[in-house]
Design goal:
Blueprint: E1 2-5, E2 8-11, H1 18-25, H2 28-31, H3 44-55, E3 62-67, E4 70-78, E5 89-94, H4 103-118, E6 123-129, H5 133-141, E7 145-156, E8 159-169
Antiparallel strand pairs: 1-2, 2-3, 3-4, 4-5, 6-8, 7-8
The structure holds coenzyme A.
Coenzyme A binds near residues 33, 93, 100, 101 and 128.
């Protein structure tokens, strides 16, 4: 599958993506704003394991962000279980080399369209660390609404932070 954006492409994962994924993901300026489960340092084996896991998933909900033939970022929807089954969580990161060019707002719009057109979901949700206004701006540019702030919900690298909860719903999205 190929989703074409302005200046980037979202496509299927390939085993050969491991090297560029490792190169761009291995950056604490990125991992500082992600779940602790995201490896740091990010090794080639981490990249190989991640790609194998994503290649085995159907339907596809996770895409490499390809720029100049390299995996320069990742965007995906994480399905939750039980009563949250129709409201997956959105996650993303982009190589520092490409920040500030509007790549991620474009990628978020593409995956929202893909999700609402192809998956049995009613809502997409994203949680942003209180110290990450750039990511909040990305979501706002892509049509998400800030629905609330969870005070002191996050403990990241020894610091207590608020979580800003953003959502977009299928009803009214088109
Ligand atoms: C957050 C991230 C995805 C942004 O991607 P990007 O493609 O560079 O996004 P943009 O090009 O839209 O640039 C960010 C926007 O935030 C704005 N911005 C930058 N610093 C800001 C600040 N301190 N306060 C408010 N807005 C800010 C920029 O001006 C730009 O908005 P504009 O186009 O209206 O001027 C990227 O920096 C990244 O991967 N960060 C590390 C991982 C991460 O934070 N992931 C998200 C976890 S929720």
């Amino acid at each position: 599958m190929i989703l074409q954006g302005k200046g980037f492409t979202l496509r299927d994962w390939q085993k050969q993506d491991a090297e560029s994924l490792q190169k761009h993901a291995n950056n604490t300026h990125i991992t500082d704003f992600l779940f602790d489960r995201f490896p740091s340092p990010y090794t080639l084996q981490d990249a190989v394991d991640f790609i194998a896991m994503k290649m085995a998933e159907t339907p596809q909900t996770n895409f490499p962000i390809v720029i100049n033939g390299e995996v320069a970022g990742v965007i995906g929807l994480d399905f939750r279980v039980d009563i949250y089954i129709k409201a997956p969580l959105l996650g993303y990161w982009l190589s520092e080399e490409y920040w500030g060019n509007g790549i991620m707002p474009g990628a978020v719009k593409l995956i929202v369209d893909y999700g609402f057109n192809n998956l049995d979901i009613m809502r997409i949700q994203a949680g942003v660390l209180g110290n990450n206004p750039k990511s909040m701006r990305v979501l706002e540019k892509a049509g998400f609404v800030k629905e609330g702030v969870l005070t002191n919900a996050i403990f990241k690298k020894g610091v207590i932070l608020d979580e800003h909860v953003y959502g977009i719903v299928k009803r009214g999205w088109d």
